[in-house]
DNA sequence: TTGTAGGCGTTATCAG
DNA sequence: CTGATAACGCCTACAA
């Protein structure tokens, strides 16, 4: 079932059918009706590959996600779903590529096979080979997170440094003097993972300004590590009365540790950080936190990508989001 | 950069380049070398759309996931990642389509635009319009889960009825006499969601055989509902000493309810069910449960799909997996 | 072992 | 307003 068949049955030329469909040149109302009738009857839909070949665009985005071995966090997951949704709004499809390094086959297929019009890159590192690969290939792309020296590039990110600073100041205002940052894993920090490093910077800076005693602790991305990490913190620094975190995956373990130590939150201990709202709300008690606006970021990323695709010479834009900190019930005045 | 350019620089015809790449006809070693050198130098990769158009196959699968509004569970997520990974092994890409009903645009684009060679359909209902749509379109597909009367179709599923039965018998062996099934949401049951219905059937049957008092309770897919649900159960049926569940999303709430009621697991209460292994292990205490083998299911689904694509007249096959129940620490003899 | 040429299904240019 | 016709880049008979 191709456009020629439709043309034949409607008694017009193929180009007329094409134009009737795209509206790129006027077609008489009567002809359009006839064509539409035939199309409806035969259930015709243009062949995407042929169209892509002729148009030079695939109407498809590539979305590079962390490899399957890495457990996706809640925000990441929501982000993926939201990207697909946002793309669908613009009648675009999304091709998934789970890849870490740049020698990945599926990544290469996407970059170089002209299967996509642009790429959204999740979870980038401060120095990321994939970013270089993409700019070298001349393929439009938007990163979630930004490299160390973004220069002129397209990205959307959350201001981890700023948000963590605000969390610390919030705790300082409540009288806390000894605080800790439960960070992402050692490996991520070593690899140069922006959010982890920027959170550390914001944490130490704000703590310094307010004269707090502060410790930055890395914690693997799973509940067991969260539990162990929290217990170590309590042991090493018994005076700590509040924690800030960006490690969502560790939260269930932190919850268990709090229970086990019979620490009442927020009376005996305060907890806050940058956390997906759903997780913040599922915590007990609900966490005062900066909710990562995953849906909004996804929409923004798609918009930026489309802008770039439609006008390759456009000046690169970016967005550094600083969502509000939602006050819930996990932070309170220091009593310890 | 196209095949013609390579041919020119290598001093051969385009077909020779094509054959050198595909290996579908012998090419002299010297020529192959020359061609490969040029390709390496220019970084050429064939245009996927052109190839798809010529070959009549896209080397791409469609993966239909629940819409973004529905929160993806842990198993579902792992499944998505695993499908992409399994597809990559066969040099295939995966196009995502988040859709519930069958009037979905992205679903239609995939089905009818010949963008994919086949489709993997997650989370199907006992009577699912998308299944009809796909078979009508003549597009190869594999469902995760099976419709009410699968007849001759391709699917892979977990034997929920059998597994839940085994859980119940396990509890009966431990002396429990009053058990409850914490099921998925009302809406899913009403919509005809197979796992929920089959779990109910297996639960009631096994309970009947062993003469247990049994209740089937629906619970929305989130922690808050899990908490409320568990407390209602305790209130309505104080004699219940054990629960079986397939509702992963509700688990954190159940955990909280257990804590709140100061119920020691497994001394005072036993809990088991069909649960992703990671979640089972993150529970406190770790759950005795039938681990859903998401990775294996993904690999199987991809294999079945490829088999079907490569031989459209192949006899439909399916796989009903019955993973072992892993004994962890959440079930014990009844003391209540 | 290699080259020529037609076709895959669209879009877009150029005439009418 | 509408029809021919040439791309788009690759694959694959058919010839040599």
Automatic annotation (TrEMBL), chains A, B:
Tell me which domain of life the UniProt entry assigns to the organism this sequence originates from. Bacteria
Q: Does the keyword DNA repair apply?
A: no
The entry's keywords: DNA-binding, Transcription, Transcription regulation
Which Gene Ontology molecular function entries are recorded, alphabetically?
A: DNA binding
HTH lacI-type domain location: 1-55
Give every HTH cro/C1-type domain span. 5-35
Q: Write down the InterPro entries for this protein, in alphabetical order.
A: Cro/C1-type_HTH, HTH_LacI, LacI/GalR-like_sensor, Lambda_DNA-bd_dom_sf, Peripla_BP_I
PANTHER family to which the protein is assigned, alphabetical: HTH-TYPE TRANSCRIPTIONAL REGULATOR GALS, LACI-RELATED TRANSCRIPTIONAL REPRESSOR
Protein name (Swiss-Prot/TrEMBL): DNA-binding LacI/PurR family transcriptional regulator
Native species of this protein? Kibdelosporangium banguiense
């Amino acid at each position: 079932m191709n456009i020629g068949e439709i043309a034949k049955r409607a008694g017009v030329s193929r180009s007329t059918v094409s134009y009737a469909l795209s509206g790129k040149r006027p077609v008489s109302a009567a002809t359009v009706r006839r064509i539409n009738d035939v199309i409806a009857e035969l259930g015709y839909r243009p062949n995407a590959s042929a169209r892509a070949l002729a148009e030079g665009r695939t109407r498809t985005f590539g979305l590079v996600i962390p490899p399957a071995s890495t457990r996706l966090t809640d925000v990441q997951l929501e982000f993926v779903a939201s990207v697909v949704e946002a793309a669908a709004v613009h009648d675009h499809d999304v091709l998934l590529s789970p890849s870490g390094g740049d020698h990945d086959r599926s990544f290469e297929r996407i970059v170089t096979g002209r299967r996509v019009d642009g790429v959204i890159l999740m979870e980038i590192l401060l120095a990321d080979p994939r970013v270089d690969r993409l700019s070298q290939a001349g393929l439009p792309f938007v990163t979630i997170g930004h490299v160390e020296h973004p220069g002129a590039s397209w990205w959307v990110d959350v201001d981890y440094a700023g948000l963590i600073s605000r969390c610390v100041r919030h705790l300082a205002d409540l009288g806390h003097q000894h605080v800790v940052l439960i960070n992402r894993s050692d490996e991520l920090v070593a690899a140069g993972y922006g959010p982890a490093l920027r959170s550390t910077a914001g944490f130490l800076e704000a703590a310094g300004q307010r004269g707090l005693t502060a410790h930055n602790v890395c914690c693997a991305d799973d509940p067991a590590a969260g539990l162990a990490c929290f217990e170590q913190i309590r042991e090493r620094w018994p005076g700590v009365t509040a924690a800030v975190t960006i490690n969502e995956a560790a939260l269930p373990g932190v919850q268990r540790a709090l229970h086990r130590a019979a620490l009442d939150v927020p009376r005996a201990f305060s907890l806050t950080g940058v956390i997906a709202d759903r997780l913040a709300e599922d915590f007990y008690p609900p966490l005062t936190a900066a909710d990562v606006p995953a849906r909004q970021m996804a929409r923004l990323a798609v918009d930026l990508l489309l802008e770039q695709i439609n006008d390759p010479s456009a000046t690169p834009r970016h967005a550094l989001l600083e969502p509000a900190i939602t006050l819930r019930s996990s932070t309170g005045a220091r009593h310890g």
